[in-house]
């Protein structure tokens, strides 16, 4: 059936959206994409950052500050808030938006108001422009320091063909060059990993020092404070505290994640609004599953065909066998079975990289196991419902998997019955034997 939007359908959509929004007074306080002014706690982390950024005033230059900690611990928020409120020039980019190392420099240039460059123009040319733009900016503002914030820094290292370490080296060299011009620059990297986990070469490591700020995950009560504050500002009516506590509990199950808590609160409110009810724990439960679904759909629809095949292979094995861990080679065999015959297969090596991507995106977890004299091998386990993944990857294909599981179970049942039957017969023949022998 064709789906289309006519006037009537649009009216319904508008009605639904209005219902969803009916219980809010101001949703902007539940927007994870905008930077908030009401930050709760995090004084010591902010203080450390300010101290590093302003150390140049007393002649000490910190070329790079590494901010790290789990997701939703306030890293992006604090860095932007501090930069916006100090007398510094800064450029903030999220490297997730760039697919390649060259894409990163383009992202930075475009943030500074410059048009995109072509790959062929080369990295050195790009850095020449970058330097000019920084100097212009500092000239205009009369600030002495330029702060380059590279959020989700780890994504830079996903570019296998580009040279991430070289790129960082070039920025560090630029920092040193600016210093000779009596201008300062500080790189702030933000990531959930420690800097030493990246493949930075010695030239870089020896120049950047060890200025780090760790963002510990929030406790359940920190998360609760954050969402209590947001709830007050964004809902028309007061929300029961046990609902907020429930949101905070769920968002602290693994590690205290403020982003998750805010998303959960907003989505629960939307669901309650649609149902024209007061927001309750029931709506929070519904929000949990809706958010998980959305997240998975986003990851999967953004992935390549082979990425989806890797997801499908893991889902199928997990679903059919009701079991957790699967080796790379079993998954590769499964991938080869599912792939459409007219598509070129990727290599075993590329496939194992695909599995690592799966882990990076949070769909699976991995562990390394010794295979005795065969060295080490990786094992993968799905961290979400296989049916959800299978259905979002290939909705036309998944029903056939469900079907084959049913068949497999029916066959298992049948063979069990057969065994029972034959063992029954054996005992009765034994009975006959006994009778013949006169027992
Ligand atoms: N201390 C805090 N006070 C108020 N809101 C916070 C605090 N820490 C995080 N948040 C909010 O939680 C969400 C996630 O924070 P974010 O800085 O994006 O985390 P991270 O970058 O560490 O993943 C944002 O909406 C942010 O406004
Ligand atoms: Mg962030």
Explain briefly what this protein structure is.
The chain is α/β, with parallel strands linked by helices. The chain has 16 helices and eight strands.
Characterization of the model:
This protein has 439 residues and is α/β, with parallel strands linked by helices. The protein folds into four domains: 43-215, 3-Layer(aba) Sandwich (Rossmann fold); 222-299, Helicase, Ruva Protein, domain 3 (Orthogonal Bundle); 304-395, Orthogonal Bundle (Arc Repressor Mutant, subunit A); 402-439. The chain is built from 16 helices and eight strands. The chain has helices spanning 7-21, 43-54, 75-84, 101-111, 123-141, 164-180, 202-208, 220-234, 241-251, 258-274, 281-302, 305-321, 328-338, 348-360, 386-393, 398-436, and strands at residues 64-69, 89-94, 145-151, 184-191, 211-215, 326-327, 364-370, 376-382. The protein has a five-stranded parallel β-sheet with strand order 2-3-4-1-5, with helices on both faces. β3 (145-151), α6 and β4 (184-191) form a beta-alpha-beta unit. The longest helix has 39 residues, at 398-436. It starts with 6 loop residues before the first helix and ends with a helix. The mean pLDDT is 89. Magnesium ion is lined by residues 75-76, 151.
Whole-angstrom Rg: 28 Å
The CATH architecture category of the largest domain equals 3-Layer(aba) Sandwich
Taken in chain order, the helices and strands follow as HHEHEHHEHEHEHHHHHEHHEEHH
User: Hetero groups bound?
Assistant: adenosine-5'-diphosphate, magnesium ion
CATH class value of the largest domain:
Alpha Beta
Strand order of the largest sheet: 2-3-4-1-5
The counted number of beta strands is: 8
What is the CATH topology classification name of the largest domain? Rossmann fold
Structural class: alpha/beta
Helix percent reads 55-70%
Function: Involved in regulation of DNA replication.
Keywords: ATP-binding, Cell cycle, Cell division, DNA replication, Nucleotide-binding
Family: Belongs to the CDC6/cdc18 family.
Binding site for ATP: 73-77, 218, 230
